Amino acid sequence: MQRQAQISPKFLYDAHGCALFEQITRLPEYYPTRTEAAIMTRFERDIAEAMAGCQVLIELGAGNCEKVRRLCRSLGPRQFLGVDIAVDFLQVAVDRLGQDFPQLSARAVAADFTADWHLPTGVPQARRELFYPGSSIGNFDTQQALHMLRHMHSLVAGDGGLLIGIDLPKPVPVLIAAYDDKQGITAEFNLNVLSHVNRLLGSDFNLQDWAHEARFDSRASRIEMHLRARRPVMVRWPQGQRHFDQGETIHTENSYKYPLSDFLDLLACAGFVRPRVWTDEQQWFAVIHAHG
What we know:
Elements: E1 5-6, H1 15-25, H2 31-42, H3 44-50, E2 56-60, H4 69-75, E3 79-84, H5 87-100, E4 105-110, E5 128-132, H6 142-156, E6 161-167, H7 172-179, H8 185-201, E7 210-217, E8 222-229, E9 233-237, E10 240-244, E11 249-256, H9 260-270, E12 273-279, E13 285-291
Parallel strand pairs: 1-11, 2-3, 2-5, 3-4, 5-6
Antiparallel strand pairs: 6-13, 7-8, 8-11, 9-10, 12-13
Helix pairs in contact: 1-8, 6-9
């Protein structure tokens, strides 16, 4: 109902949205996943050294739990907690992880970690390490990101730490292609949010009325995803209705591309210390570990 209509990006991730995002990570245009994986592989020993002594490994936005497998092997934690809003999808992945690592006590935690959330009771306080890969922190503006990082710090303060991935600035054509692929998988992913909202609200969005759009805001250093009305549209739901003019958009996601120095400042403001940074040769992506 705001002048610039928007839907929180967390609603992109129903079960179908999670499956579509897995497809996106394998697209040739979508560089973040493979670039981050290459960094994690190349610097596996250094990263394990920075996180040495980890007893409780906590992954935020765990999804299919594939990225955390490397850390489970190199760190050998006693406990793993996967935190995600899409809990049904997560539970299957956590069960599979527990089968593959029998010595690991693995649990799925249903939580919206964009809000103030808490770990289950009984999770040991000592030697916690948070893992937040995939540059998802870029979905939040600076103040939101800082609030989240401060909450993360409160969970690991003392003898824990945070391992986080961030996407760095790069040529605009590379960015646009990553969020508007030739196969149209990202478009399907973006449009799927309307199906999710229909189920949640009882609204009558018709996906044929909307088109996917990715744009870059150079002043904010962020990619924006929108859904643009192809024609004048009236959308109704039990609590109300809204008319959209042709060309009017619903803003569904941001993805900030933080300069490295800016993000290190954010970590410091949140209370994290002694950061270590690993990046690829093109400096397109960074993996950072910092102590609580």
